[in-house]
């Protein structure tokens, strides 16, 4: 769950940008059929089995449009949900409910899809001691939401962005003139609290990374035989991450190899959405109301 500072400083600007993308001047359809305010209620219904995620963002879409909107949830992030399940009721001005519907569902469906897919992958690693990591292969301007969804699904976050850690990939190594030079330069430049991770593609690079004193060695796109040889050579002298086209279909081959982490871009770039709908919109008396009025009802 996002704290209020994170929500206001980091999430709100992206949510507002998404709303501006969908409403450049007005919601013509809604204003055509609903020219005046009218209180109403709509139901949030799940249409397929999965892990729900993003309820706070779903609610925030509506409250940024109108802080009088009230959402009553019957589930929480991380819960398993089933087809036909009533997950929430949203009350407020019908015009607000209609204007925010698509944006709110886009966030909820996307985040729930990532959480659901991540959960299915994480279950395959249970008992292995391997930590499942995401990557920076996220939708532009949606990283804060997608990485949160990975955590809800049972995965772990790799570095959040380029300022968050040192990861020397193939092009960094090429620019520096080799693994040893890249590690040496990073060690001299980066704060001492930063670990140095190096991406390697063959056994010669593995040996260079170990000799250079890398803290984490990422074995990228190696076949099973090379992976085993690399792990045996490293022999505990660095933490080991495996990456490169790791999906739900092939991740179990990595169990038992003795690696510490497995990173998968598929968690965020290939997860399908979870099908969720807002249904049964209807007028009601005193929907939403002020915070004081809702407090009296409670």
List the helices and strands and how they pair.
Layout: H1 4-22, H2 28-33, E1 39-46, E2 50-51, H3 55-65, E3 70-73, E4 80-81, E5 86-93, H4 94-124, E6 131-133, H5 143-152, E7 166-168, H6 170-176, H7 179-189, E8 196-200, H8 203-212, E9 216-220, H9 224-234, E10 239-243, E11 261-263, H10 266-269, E12 276-283, H11 291-297
Parallel strand pairs: 6-11, 7-8, 8-9, 9-10, 10-11
Antiparallel strand pairs: 1-5, 1-12, 2-4, 3-5
Helix pairs in contact: 1-3, 3-4, 4-5, 6-7, 7-8, 8-9
Report on this structure.
The structure is a single chain. By secondary structure, the protein is of the alpha/beta class. It has helices spanning 4-22, 28-33, 55-65, 94-124, 143-152, 170-176, 179-189, 203-212, 224-234, 266-269, 291-297, and strands at residues 39-46, 50-51, 70-73, 80-81, 86-93, 131-133, 166-168, 196-200, 216-220, 239-243, 261-263, 276-283. The strands form three sheets. A six-stranded parallel sheet has the order 6-11-10-9-8-7. A four-stranded antiparallel sheet has the order 3-5-1-12, with helices on one face. Strands 2-4 form a two-stranded antiparallel ribbon. α1 (4-22) crosses α3 (55-65) and α8 (203-212) packs parallel to α9 (224-234). The chain is elongated, with a radius of gyration of 23 Å. The two termini are 23 Å apart.
């Amino acid at each position: 769950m996002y704290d209020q500072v994170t929500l206001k400083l980091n999430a709100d600007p992206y949510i507002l940008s998404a709303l501006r993308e969908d409403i450049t001047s007005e919601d013509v359809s809604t204003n055509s059929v609903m020219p005046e305010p009218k209180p109403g209620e709509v139901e949030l219904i799940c249409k397929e089995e999965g892990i729900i995620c993003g309820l706070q963002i779903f609610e925030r879409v509506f409250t940024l449009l109108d802080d009088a909107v009230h959402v009553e949830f019957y589930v929480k992030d991380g819960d398993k949900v089933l087809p036909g399940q009533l997950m929430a009721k949203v009350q407020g001005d019908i015009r607000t409910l209609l204007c925010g519907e698509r944006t709110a569902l886009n966030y909820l469906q996307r985040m729930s899809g990532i959480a659901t897919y991540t959960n299915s992958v994480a279950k395959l690693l249970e008992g292995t001691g391997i930590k499942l990591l995401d990557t920076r292969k996220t939708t532009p301007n949606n990283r804060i939401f997608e990485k949160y969804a990975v955590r809800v699904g049972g995965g772990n976050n790799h570095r959040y962005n380029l300022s968050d850690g040192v990861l020397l990939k193939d092009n960094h190594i090429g620019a520096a003139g080799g693994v040893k030079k890249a590690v040496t330069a990073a060690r001299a430049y980066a704060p001492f609290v930063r670990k140095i991770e190096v991406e390697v593609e063959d056994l010669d690079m593995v040996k260079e990374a170990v000799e250079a004193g890398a803290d984490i060695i990422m074995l990228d796109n190696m076949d099973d035989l090379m992976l085993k040889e690399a792990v045996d050579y490293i022999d505990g002298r660095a933490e080991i991450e495996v990456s490169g086209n790791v999906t739900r279909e092939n991740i179990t081959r990595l169990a038992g190899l003795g690696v510490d982490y497995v990173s998968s871009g598929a968690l965020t770039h290939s997860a399908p959405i979870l099908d969720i709908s807002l249904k049964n919109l209807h007028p009601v008396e005193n929907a939403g109301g002020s915070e004081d009025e809702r407090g009296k009802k409670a």
